[in-house]
Design goal:
With 394 residues, the protein is an alpha/beta fold. It has 13 helices and 15 strands. Strand 3, helix 6 and strand 4 form a beta-alpha-beta unit. Helix 3 packs across helix 10. 44% of the residues are buried.
């Protein structure tokens, strides 16, 4: 009989990935995945960029390259983080990864031993929970409100908990809730982690997708001690199929990520890097992102208006200023997994919220994505969902 490692034995498949298999059915209206709108992918532009790469440097594109990533793309990332996130860095602070998910995986490997404590928002991103789980840490959930992590609760936990090795946060348009931290919380957070010197993973896949309100400085831009590791990605502002993300960290920390990447896969895809780099030479990425924001902002409005109209009283949901998600809280007597089964029968899908809490519970919640469905499907899907919810209300 084959024997597996204890760490692998305690893993299970992502609930979102399993649900996405079901939602591939053409008649299902899916609000489940965190998928970008495929009709917005710059296919013609990327085709031109790919042709240019093969014409100008085809042999280089097909060859191995460095673990860190191609310098010209890393420099573009440095420039973009300065413009969009207020982060001062250089290419020595950048490691290109196979999507920001790989950055999450590496973060767990770099900082966590078995039994170490990782602090997260409650709820938090399921993909991060799964990435960290293989290191067998103890998860402690920090309470949140509509402005994100509550700093008094964070400090209380740190003061009363031994062996806190890492904090993981998504301050901008959080997955799954869509919440964004205000400036005063960001400043207080940095005071706390500087005081206790705890490494922090700032996950920022959605930060450029703001529809309304004022841009907030990233935690990394407020970092004076080099404690923040910033994760970025091209998946939401260009296309996820290229699997290109990055880690921005101080050189001492980044060296550890580099060692882990050498053991994992040697390097990011040379072809993907060169094609994205060439696209950014040939086209204006800001103009492309502006189109994405216009569409997603409109679809958010369509969904929230439909929810206001179709949902029964007693159901709460967030109003995100950007990103891809809104978060729904049902009355405590309702179970979102049971509701989801009935919704699938009505040809509409979402992700039940319990999996976004590393220690379980909160089964009266679910996540909704508005980015990848057209207006008519959003309207139709919310009407069906509202009908099911009314049938469960006492």
């Amino acid at each position: 009989m084959v024997k597996f490692s204890d760490r692998v034995e305690q893993l299970k498949g992502s609930e979102i990935r399993e649900l996405l298999k079901l939602t591939q059915q053409p008649d299902i209206i899916s609000f489940a995945g965190g998928l970008p709108a495929k009709e917005l992918f710059p296919v013609e532009g990327m085709k031109a960029a790919a042709m240019a790469v093969m014409s100008e440097s085809g042999q280089e594109a097909m060859q191995y390259s460095t673990t860190d990533g191609i310098d010209s793309l890393r420099q573009k990332i440095v420039d973009r983080m300065k413009a969009k996130n207020g982060i001062d860095s250089s290419i020595e602070n950048i490691l290109i990864t196979n999507g920001s998910q790989q950055g999450l995986d590496f973060s767990g490997r770099v900082f966590l031993n078995e039994g170490d404590v990782v602090l997260m928002e409650s709820p938090s991103y399921l993909g991060a929970i799964n990435a960290f789980k293989i290191n067998c840490p103890k998860f402690i959930e920090v309470p949140t409100d509509n402005n994100g992590m509550i700093m008094e609760e964070l400090e209380k936990i740190i003061q009363t908990t031994e062996n806190v090795k890492m904090i993981y946060v998504i301050p901008d348009f959080q997955n799954p809730t869509g919440r964004t931290w205000p400036l005063e919380r960001r400043k207080k957070f940095m005071e706390i982690i500087n005081k206790y010197e705890i490494p922090t993973i700032e996950d920022n896949p959605y930060g450029e997708l703001r529809f309304e309100g004022e841009n907030m400085p990233s935690l990394k831009s407020l970092d004076t001690k080099g404690l923040v590791v910033f994760l970025g990605t091209f998946s939401k502002i260009l296309a996820p199929g290229y699997r290109l993300g990055w880690v921005c960290a101080n050189p001492e920390i980044l060296a550890k990520y580099n060692f882990v990447k050498q053991g994992a896969d040697l390097q990011p895809s040379t072809v993907s890097q060169l094609e994205v780099d060439k696209f950014m030479d040939m086209y204006n990425l800001d103009e492309h992102v502006a189109k994405i924001k216009e569409v997603y902002g409109h679809r958010r409005d369509v969904m929230l208006n439909a929810m206001k109209r179709e949902f029964p009283e007693g159901i709460e949901y967030t109003h995100p200023d950007g990103g891809l998600f809104t978060w729904v809280v049902l009355p405590e007597y309702m179970n979102a997994r049971e509701v989801a089964v009935k919704c699938i029968e009505e040809k509409v899908a979402y992700v039940p919220g319990g999996s976004f809490f590393p220690n379980g519970g909160h089964e009266n919640t679910f996540r909704m994505n508005y980015s990848c469905m057209p207006d008519d499907k959003i309207e139709q899907g919310i009407a069906s969902l509202g009908k099911v919810l009314k049938s469960f209300m006492k």
